[in-house]
Amino acid sequence: MRGQRLGLTALALSVSACGGRIVPPSQGPAPAQRPIAQPSPTPSATATPVAPPAAPDVANAVAAGVTAGPPIAELPLGGEQAARALAAFRTSCPSLVRRTDATGLTKGADWQPACSAAATTSDEEARGFFQQYFEAVRIGDGKAFATGYFEPEIAGSRDRRPGYEVPIYARPTDLVDVDLGLFSESLKGRKIRGRVDGTNFVPYHDRTAIETGAIDQSAPIIAWAADPVDIFFLQIQGSGRLRLPDGGVMRIGYDSQNGRDYTGIGALMRQRGLLQPGQTSMQGIVAWLRAHPEEGRAIMRENKSFVFFREQQTAAKGAMGYVVTGGVSAAVDPKFVPLGAPILLAMDRPEASRLWIAQDTGGAIRGPNRVDTFWGAGQEASIIAGGMSARGAAFVLVPRGTLARLSSAATTVGSPNGGAPVNR
Fold first, then answer.
1. What is the pLDDT of residues 368-380, one digit of tens each?
2. All residues at 6 or more sequence positions from 309 whose CB lies less than 8 Å from its CB, including other chains
3. What is the pTM of this model?
4. Do residues 319 and 339 make contact, with C-beta atoms less than 8 angstroms apart?
5. Who is most buried in 247, 263, 287, 358, counting CB within 10 A?
């Protein structure tokens, strides 16, 4: 759904600092349910944002260390919530069973039993389904930080007219993606973007250059926005809806990005004393930018990253190519959570404490146990996402037997993860 987007609360500091089945005998029956303490409620609209933890420099989940979590029956998982997660998991299955898992935890075939069962599991059986086919594991220390995102709606027009003067660009024709892994094994998995200038490959134009006309001849304009602040934040989200002058809606989604690093303007504004206490939410930052248009433009241009869009005919889609669901889909770092996998959060915010399906990614969502929760569209979604800043525990749900297999592999051939634990 997005490229550079990070959770709105993290933005505020940086903008603030995805029936009764038989369990295989070797795995035993699902454990009996015991209660788990629930987190204390915290009002979503008044949350004080906190800075996200720095992403540790580890290769993947196995390198970070994998340990057994509690029985799923002990985790906060309600029946309605499980049913919604089951529907999203079912949608993800075709990709999940084929995708190469960068976490080192699973292979596509590991998911086949759960995916086959999901196809015929009813909503009433959803909670038992997750208990029966999955086991919970902690990645690293399991300490989670969650933010939120949503699908914004802003004023826009398909053609330029008075009041709609901010261009929304499609991908430029001269933007080039380079897979560095094609040139060196040591660079495998690393990609860059830029443009060709004569015989040189150089960085692509930054935000300032783009906004002052550098790509007018190379990038189609698909629509025009009414407010430069709105489109700046829509770029951070990665997709959204344009409310057209005739009342219609045009959906736009992430197409590409200019390859420049993302800079969170909220941190800059705090450091310079521009934000007063209580202003570090997304809403507070937006209000300041609109009240100080010239200074605001200069600050926004310090974020050199720029996102290009395409028109979409369907609702917002995540990195897996599937429509994301509010209150169910989440963005993760695919090196630590398999895309399509369930991830259960037990947090200090009750809204975030539920089972999510990892169906999306984000340029600023990095490291183990870093989760960006999707809340859908509309005013309520924007309030929850804008104030979401939750800490607690994350448990990745993997097919039963995964931990035993990882432990066996580590014992048989020596630790494949540089000494990180794979413990039961």
1. 999 999 999 888 9
2. 168, 169, 170, 222, 239, 252, 253, 254, 255
3. 0.72
4. yes
5. 358
**How many CB atoms neighbour CB 223 within 10 A?**
22
Share of the chain above pLDDT 70, in %: 83
Residue type, 406: L
Task: Say which amino acid occupies 133.
Answer: Y
In sequence order, the 6+-apart residues with CB closer than 8 A to the CB of 45 are: 383, 387
Q: What is the pLDDT of residues 236-254, one digit of tens each?
A: 888 899 999 999 999 999 9
Q: Report how far residue 157's alpha carbon sits from residue 165's, in angstroms, rounded to the nearest whole number.
A: 9
What are 20's two structure tokens? 């009764």
pLDDT at 22 exceeding the cut of 60: no
HSE value, Cβ hemisphere, 13 Å, CA-based, for 379: 0
- What pLDDT was estimated at residue 1? 60
Q: Is residue 360 within 8 Å of 374, Cβ to Cβ? A: yes
In this structure, what DSSP letter does residue 329 have? E
Q: Which two tokens stand for residue 346?
A: 């037990």
Higher pLDDT, 102 or 277: 102
DSSP for residue 124: G
Name the H helices within 134-274: 207-211, 228-237, 265-271
Q: How far apart are CA 67 and CA 172, in angstroms?
A: 45
Task: Work out whether strand 191-197 and strand 200-203 pair parallel, antiparallel, or are unpaired.
Answer: antiparallel
Phi first, then psi, for residue 376 (nearest 5°) are 90, -150
157-195 as b/e, with b when 16 or more CB fall inside 10 Å? bbeeeeebebbbbbbbeebeeeeeeeeeeeeeeeeeebb
**Average confidence score pLDDT of the chain:** 85
pLDDT in tens, 311-354: 998 888 899 999 999 999 999 999 999 999 999 999 999 999 99
| Burial annotation 85-97 (CB, 10 A radius, 16+ → b, else e) | bbbbbbbbbebbb
